[in-house]
């Protein structure tokens, strides 16, 4: 019996070793995906690459004084941040173009020069990009402490007496007492600064710390929540309003956008593969022999893949709206436009695979790798802003990144197709997807003509 | 042996009204020369048997004639049209029964016929009428609503045949249409093919079943390595020198009178002999012309 089993084993190993697709899935795919995931999340192969992981922060300097410029320079010196000095940062953050934007108000430099407490800086954050915005606060902390040190004592004392709601008469004595303990407060701040630096070094572990019982350490959260106020920083999360007043869920919007993008690609590529199946079975030749088929064969495939795509998207978004309150009806026209264009682009990509490959097995191996890598790089697995910069740039050559921008822009940011004075639109991603789809389809037709067509 | 065109098709070659006229046809796939300078004429209403071992170039020739492939060189005219230039017009007038069972396994029998009928330009009542004809001709009326995947090999072959005939083509290419079926289905298929031939349809028939060609074809062409070795009626092929030499040693008598004379001579010498004429069958002719060496195609020719 053992001898028979060994004979069967040898047969299966021989067959497996000659199946190039099986070898690809066994050996190449896991290594390829591991390399992509490792680079995305861990920094890079051979331990390098982490230097390119930077969070983009927009700074709007309304003060335009040497002090405010010093602050911009200091923030620019933070290795984990990539500073872009821009105007209208609130809208940029509201549009989802930046994870956060810092506004230095007018009078900031003058107040510091006078030894007064400067007006609060304002940090606008995108709640859909929690990881990036939390990293931002951690990274800004040491800089802001240093920059506002001169006014820190009086600012802190004022805040504390406000919090204690003391009678006006006793405030002077209390303030003197508190100022006397300022040095001790400074010690505490140094400790916080060191903690922030440590947190920045391990930016991947950004969830609130959890104790052994599985509960968050509330004390730590309090310090973190109080920290911005002590630094003279106002934080405003720009959560887009919902027409129906229900709370928004960035996670649900991202998840359904990602499913709409990634799963559609898998399904459409698989369906487009029926072209290769028909070629192998001989029905494609039979179609080509009919007087009226000709290149309508490929057009028919485009139409049916688009139809299937639309059915899948409708079902997916209907489920998202019903079960997860994804604001589908609120943005129906824009969502319909994005769905149509994405269905077209994804169908074109599927047909490109089907016409570029010679066998279905070949197509399955290649398309699986390409779709998974595109999904990782394009932001369907995790937000693009936490990826290394070169990864984010590479993502822009994939249709996944543009489709994610379109769907997430609509479902989370509430964007329409066209820009409005308050909000950008998703016209650019849709144009890129539409034109990219047209190019892919043209190439697919050309390949079909070369490899399948004749007279 | 390359037959001199002047000896066979010369009277037809170039003559107006031939169903197929081919001269100097060439087609290569990389280094593999599939067809090398082929000349061919098929008259309207004729049934041509195209024979050859594996890799002889039969299927490549059929694919060129039926618009699926472009020739590298040579002149090709099918029903007066150039397959490379007038593909769409030609496809309306020809039918091709492929070697593979090219049907949608997930569709019912009648759905397959309706689909191919519609793509062949049939509509409405005419389409329904032809689908009904197809089901009857294939002997599948009772199974019209069954999925093709549930059919036996013979049932699929019958449906595969009629799917190519729905639009009543003038010329039909049949590429091994009876491969792998039981004798009953083969006989049924054959009767259908004979029926359309009797109706005046021109046929080009490739197969490895020599008996089918003997039964059906008016003329036979034997190909090997992309060339025509011999061509003519069965009687003409039997008379070829190579074939006669291939029959081996023995007494060869060329007329009925000689047969009778030989029998009389044997009786005179006390033998109770009956002398019957024996003629080479097509398989013998085929082997005499193409040899007995195995033809294992190791190099794939793109379909």
Please tell me about this protein's structure.
The complex is a heterodimer of chains A (455) and B (303). Chain A has 2 domains: 50-237, no CATH class; 250-451, no CATH class. Chain A is 65% helix and 6% strand. Chain A is built from 19 helices and 5 strands. In chain A, strand 1 (55-61), helix 3 and strand 2 form a beta-alpha-beta unit. The longest helix of chain A has 29 residues, at 296-324. Chain B has 303 residues and is an alpha/beta fold. Helix content of chain B is 35%, strand content 19%. Chain B is built from 11 helices and 9 strands. A 6-stranded mixed sheet of chain B has the order 5-6-7-3-8-9, with helices on both faces. Chain B has a 3-stranded antiparallel sheet with strand order 2-1-4, with helices on one face. In chain B, helix 3 (109-119) packs across helix 4 (124-137) and helix 5 (153-163) packs parallel to helix 6 (183-198). The longest helix of chain B has 16 residues, at 183-198. Classes of the chains: A mainly alpha (455), B alpha/beta (303). Chains A and B meet through helix 13 of A and helix 2 of B.
Q: What is the secondary structure topology, with strand pairs?
A:
The complex is a heterodimer of chains A (455) and B (303).
Chain A: H1 2-17, H2 20-42, E1 55-61, H3 66-76, E2 81-85, H4 89-94, E3 100-104, H5 108-113, E4 121-125, H6 130-147, H7 149-164, H8 168-180, H9 182-201, H10 218-230, E5 233-237, H11 250-272, H12 274-281, H13 283-288, H14 296-324, H15 332-356, H16 360-378, H17 389-395, H18 399-411, H19 427-451
Parallel strand pairs in A: 1-2, 1-3, 4-5
Antiparallel strand pairs in A: 3-4
Chain B: E1 20-29, E2 32-42, E3 47-51, H1 58-65, E4 73-78, H2 87-91, E5 94-97, H3 109-119, H4 124-137, H5 153-163, E6 171-175, H6 183-198, E7 202-206, H7 210-216, E8 219-224, E9 227-232, H8 234-238, H9 241-246, H10 256-268, H11 282-290
Parallel strand pairs in B: 3-7, 3-8, 5-6, 6-7
Antiparallel strand pairs in B: 1-2, 1-4, 8-9
Helix pairs in contact in B: 3-4, 5-6
């Amino acid at each position: 019996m053992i001898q028979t089993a060994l004979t069967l084993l040898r047969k299966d190993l021989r067959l497996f070793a000659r199946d190039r697709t099986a070898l690809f899935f066994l050996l190449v795919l896991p290594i390829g995906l591991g390399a992509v995931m490792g680079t995305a999340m861990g920094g890079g192969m051979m331990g390098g690459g982490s230097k390119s992981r930077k969070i983009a922060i927009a700074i709007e300097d309304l003060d335009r004084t040497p002090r405010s410029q010093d602050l911009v320079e200091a923030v620019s010196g933070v290795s984990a941040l990539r500073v872009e000095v821009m105007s209208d940062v609130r809208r940029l953050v509201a549009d989802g173009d930046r994870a956060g934007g810092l506004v230095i108000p007018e009078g900031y430099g003058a107040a510091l020069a006078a030894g007064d407490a400067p007006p609060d800086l304002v940090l606008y954050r995108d709640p859909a990009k929690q990881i990036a915005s939390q990293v931002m606060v951690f990274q800004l902390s040491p800089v802001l402490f240093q920059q506002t040190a001169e006014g820190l004592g009086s600012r802190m004392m004022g805040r504390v007496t406000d919090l204690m709601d003391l009678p006006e008469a006793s405030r002077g004595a209390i303030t003197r007492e508190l100022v006397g303990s300022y040095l001790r407060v400074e010690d505490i701040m140094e400790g916080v600064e060191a903690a922030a630096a440590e947190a920045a070094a391990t930016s991947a572990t950004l969830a609130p710390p959890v104790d052994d019982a599985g509960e968050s350490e509330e004390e730590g959260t309090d310090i973190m929540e109080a920290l911005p106020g002590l630094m003279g920083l106002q934080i405003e999360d720009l959560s887009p309003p919902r027409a129906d007043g229900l709370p928004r869920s960035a996670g649900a919007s991202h998840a359904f956008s990602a499913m709409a993008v990634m799963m559609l690609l898998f399904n459409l590529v698989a369906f487009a593969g029926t072209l290769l199946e028909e070629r192998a079975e001989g029905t494609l030749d039979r179609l080509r022999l009919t007087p009226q088929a000709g290149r309508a064969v490929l057009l028919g495939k485009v139409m049916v893949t688009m139809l299937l795509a639309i059915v899948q998207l409708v079902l997916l978004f209907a489920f998202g709206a019903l079960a997860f309150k994804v604001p589908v009806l609120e943005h129906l026209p824009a969502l319909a436009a994005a769905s149509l264009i994405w269905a077209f682009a994804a169908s074109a990509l599927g047909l490109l695979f089907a016409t570029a490959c010679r066998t279905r097995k070949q197509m399955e191996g290649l398309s699986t790798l390409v779709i998974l890598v595109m999904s990782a790089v394009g932001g369907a697995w995790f937000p693009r802003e936490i990826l290394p910069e070169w990864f984010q740039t590479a993502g822009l050559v994939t249709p996944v990144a543009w489709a994610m921008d379109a769907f997430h822009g609509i479902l989370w940011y509430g964007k329409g197709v066209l820009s409005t004075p308050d909000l950008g639109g998703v016209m650019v991603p849709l144009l890129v997807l539409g034109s990219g789809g047209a190019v892919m389809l043209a190439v697919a037709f050309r390949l079909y003509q070369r490899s399948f067509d004749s007279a | 042996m390359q037959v001199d065109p002047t000896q066979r098709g010369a009277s037809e070659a170039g003559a107006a009204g031939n169903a197929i006229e081919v001269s100097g046809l060439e087609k290569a796939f990389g280094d593999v020369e599939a067809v090398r300078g082929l000349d061919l004429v098929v008259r309207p209403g004729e049934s041509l048997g195209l024979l050859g071992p594996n890799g002889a170039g039969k299927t490549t020739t059929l694919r060129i004639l039926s618009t699926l492939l472009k020739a590298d060189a040579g002149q090709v005219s099918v029903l007066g049209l150039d397959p490379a230039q007038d593909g769409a017009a030609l496809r309306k007038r020809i039918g091709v029964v492929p070697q593979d069972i090219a049907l949608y396994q997930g569709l019912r029998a009648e759905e397959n016929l309706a689909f191919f009928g519609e793509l062949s330009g049939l509509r409405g009542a005419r389409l329904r009428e032809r689908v009904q004809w197809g089901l009857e001709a294939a002997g599948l009326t009772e199974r019209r609503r069954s999925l093709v995947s549930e059919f036996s090999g013979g049932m699929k072959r019958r449906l595969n045949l009629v799917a190519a005939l729905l639009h009543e083509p003038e010329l039909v290419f049949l590429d091994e249409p009876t491969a792998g079926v039981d004798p009953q289905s083969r006989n049924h298929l054959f009767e259908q093919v004979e029926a359309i031939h009797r109706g005046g349809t021109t046929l080009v028939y490739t197969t490895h079943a020599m008996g089918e060609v003997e039964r059906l074809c008016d003329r036979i062409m034997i190909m090997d390595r992309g060339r025509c070795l011999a061509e003519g009626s069965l009687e003409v092929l039997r008379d070829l020198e190579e074939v006669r030499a291939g029959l081996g040693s023995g007494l060869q008598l060329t007329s009925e009178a000689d047969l009778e004379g030989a029998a009389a001579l044997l009786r005179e010498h006390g033998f109770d002999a009956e002398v019957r004429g024996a003629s080479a069958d097509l398989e013998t002719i085929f082997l005499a012309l193409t040899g007995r060496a195995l033809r294992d195609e190791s190099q794939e020719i793109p379909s």
